[in-house]
Amino acid sequence: MxxxxxxxxxxxxxxxxxxxxxxLIRSMLRNDQDKRRQELxxxxxxxxxxxxLQAYERIxxxxxxISLESLLLRVSTADMTASQLHSVMLxxxxxxxxxxxxxQIYMSQQAWEVASNARSNMIKIINSxxxxxxxxxxxIALSRQLLEKIMELEKEPTHVAIDFIKAEVGRMI
Length: 173
Known about the structure:
Layout: H1 2-66, H2 68-75, H3 82-99, H4 109-131, H5 139-152, H6 157-172
Helix pairs in contact: 1-6, 3-4, 3-5, 4-5, 4-6
């Protein structure tokens, strides 16, 4: 019986020391893991945030470039027919969109849809104005028709999209 008491006198303190060391080391390892995870998240955000902001910048630039005023200034010439202007405008919008297609990876789904819808709405506006033109209409007549259509709208689709993207970037920062 005395031998059992001696064994318990040695075993119980050793077990207490072991359990204390075990829980302290486990706690330190967890803290270290959490710290490393937070550092990794911080490092990723330092890398990804500038890329995201650049994607939003490029989409805003795309939207500005396909806004009616900008588009007409860049692609129209005095000697164009309405059908030529119509074709060049649609081609320009499509190529601009294809050039910025990869930006959707870095944007929220909602922001990308807003930008994509703005492009679609601009194409619809251009198509509906071009349908009203006669085969011998000039590019200037189409430009005038487009500007009148845009004036009827409360806000141009590209400007609505730009406002949405600005608000989203404001929430990100």
